[in-house]
Design goal:
It contains 11 helices and 11 strands. The chain is an alpha+beta fold. The chain folds into 4 domains: 8-71, Winged helix-like DNA-binding domain superfamily/Winged helix DNA-binding domain (Arc Repressor Mutant, subunit A, Orthogonal Bundle); 83-131, no CATH class; 146-228, SH3 type barrels (Roll); 240-319, Alpha-Beta Plaits. Helix 4 (83-97) packs antiparallel against helix 5 (105-118) and helix 5 packs across helix 7. The longest helix has 17 residues, at 8-24. The chain starts with 7 loop residues before the first helix and ends in a 12-residue tail after the last helix. InterPro entries: CBASS_pafABC_assoc_protein, DeoR_HTH, HTH_11, PafC-like, Tscrpt_reg_HTH_DeoR_CS, WCX_dom, WH-like_DNA-bd_sf, WH_DNA-bd_sf.
Length: 331
Amino acid sequence: MDIAGGDERGTTERVLTLLGLLQQRRVWSGPELADRLGVTSRTVRRDVERLRTLGYQVRAGQGVGGGYQLGPGQDLPPLLFDDEEAIATAVSLLAGAGGAVAGADDAALRALTKLDRVLPTRLRHEVRALSGAVESFGGGRTPVDPETLMTLARACRDEVEAGFDYPSGDVRRRRRVEPYRLVASDRRWYLLAYDLDRDDWRSFRVDRITEVAARTWRFHPRPAPDAATYVQEGVASRVYPHRARFLVHAPAEIVRAQIPASAAVVQQRDNGHCEVLSGGAELDFVLVHVLLLGHSFEVLDPPELVTRCHILAQRLLTAGKTMSPPPAEDS
């Protein structure tokens, strides 16, 4: 008779314990597992079948050196962590969300919000303490408070309203929002949210957000713009007094490699052309930056930028009149 008993809860706990054992060591013999679980070898075989039904690939080897081992499956089933593993995973994900690994920030934050859903309160305090000891060197993304990032991520996940203080000119004002998505650029984290007081979509720099608090009031998500595109267009052009569009005679992948994502939006037109949207305090600066890309281009908007092209071209011609151009090199 099995010591673990036959009720459903006892069976579930035993199967989870079996899964934990299989994750700890490469191979277990049937008698070893039976002894650890306090059951018969027959019950071990039944519990192994239960794990297989849940999507775990449990292999059974015969003969000397054989036994049960957990193999890779076609899908990713749930994983079991002890306290130390959960803390280490959460801290590593916080570092990834901070941009320590290129391209991993969004995925790290999504994984962190899933882990946060089941993380016991006692472990959250340790994660918070350890995350304060994780730093990076060199350039990269502007640091943000991990607790602020997590609170906003939870609010996006749970679809609950949030409030926070945000600078407006020389003062900080309280903002009430329906948070939608967190977006990571090459330099910063942004929150895309529906501003309830301004009745419109807004993007907020997370490093400028303070005193954030999620409410219990749930909202029904509104039709939303594409989060990454909206934030990128805002960072690259909407925040500036002047905006400009160009048709650049080069493939989009080449131009994207030349311009930071926070400086311009590059959209593919065809195999040999792309459209560049950017902004700046002065149109001349935007024009010069596009000129320095080294590709032929045309001004699409605004019309007054065409006049600036002629003025700057005349200045360059005038500046070059004092010297003869060097002879062209033989090709």
